[in-house]
Amino acid sequence: MNVTQDLSFLALITNAHLIVQLIMALLLGISLTSWTYIFRKMFAVRAARRQTVEFERSFWAGGNLHALHQTANGNRADSGALARIFDAGMGEFIKGKASYGSREALDVGAVLDGARRAMRAAFQREMDVLEAHLAFLASVGSVSPYIGLLGTVWGIMNAFRGLANVQQATLAAVAPGIAEALIATAIGLFAAIPAVVAYNRFSHDIDRLAIRFESFVEEFSNILQRQSR
C-alpha cells in the first residue's frame, strides 16, 4: 500500500516534535526581534549621517560659533550627534572662560582641557546610542545556527528512535522526520544571515561616523585654542 505523506513546509512544522517546534518558535522570535533592530538601526544611522553632513556644512560655512551654539542648544533632540558634541564643547568653553572673570586670570590650558573632556564625554554618549543593539545582532548571527542545529539533532534523534517501532526501516519512513528536523537549521540560518550582514554594515558605518566625530573634536579644539589667544 502506498502512503502519501504531506511534506509541505507548514505540515512539516505542525507535525514536528514539540521540542523542535519550541526551538523553531524561539528562532522565529529572535528573527523578528533582529529585523526590528535592523530597521531601527538603519534609520538611525542614516539620520545620523545626514545630520552630520548638515552640521559640518553649517559649521565650516564660517558663521558665528555662539549663534551656532545657541541653535544646537535650543534643538538638541533633532540637531544630531555632531551638533551635540559641539554644543557640549562650546558650552564648557564659555563656562570656563566666564569662571575666571578677567582675561588676565584666564587659564587657557585648563579651559581647553575642560572643553575637550566635555566633547569626549558627549562623543562616548553618542557612540553608545549608535552602537545600541549591535551586540544583539552579533549574538544572533553567532548563536542562531547552533540553536537550529540543536533542533535538527533532536528531530533526527527522535526520527531514528521511531524506527525502532517498525519492522522494516526505509528512507520513506525516516524522511519526514529528517525533513522536519532540517527546517530548524533552515530557520536558524534565516535568522543568522541577515543579522551578520546588518552587523557588519552598521559597524562599518558607525566606525566611519566615529572617525568624523573624533576629527571634529580635534579640529574644533584647535579653533578654540586660536580664539583664546
From TrEMBL:
The MotA/TolQ/ExbB proton channel domain is annotated at: 106-214
Pfam families noted in UniProt: MotA_ExbB
Report how it sits in the membrane. Answer: Multi-pass membrane protein
Q: Which residues form a coiled coil?
A: none
Subcellular localization: Cell inner membrane; Cell membrane
| Swiss-Prot/TrEMBL keywords | Cell cycle, Cell division, Cell inner membrane, Cell membrane, Membrane, Transmembrane, Transmembrane helix
Q: Which positions, given as ranges, span the membrane?
A: 18-39, 134-157, 177-199
Describe, as the record does, how this protein assembles with itself and its partners.
The Tol-Pal system is composed of five core proteins: the inner membrane proteins TolA, TolQ and TolR, the periplasmic protein TolB and the outer membrane protein Pal. They form a network linking the inner and outer membranes and the peptidoglycan layer.
**What NCBIfam families does its record include?**
tolQ
The UniProt function text for this chain reads:
Part of the Tol-Pal system, which plays a role in outer membrane invagination during cell division and is important for maintaining outer membrane integrity.
What protein family is recorded?
A: Belongs to the ExbB/TolQ family.
Q: Which HAMAP family match?
A: TolQ
- Protein's name in the database: Tol-Pal system protein TolQ
- What is the organism of origin for this protein? Janthinobacterium fluminis
Encoded by which gene?
Answer: tolQ
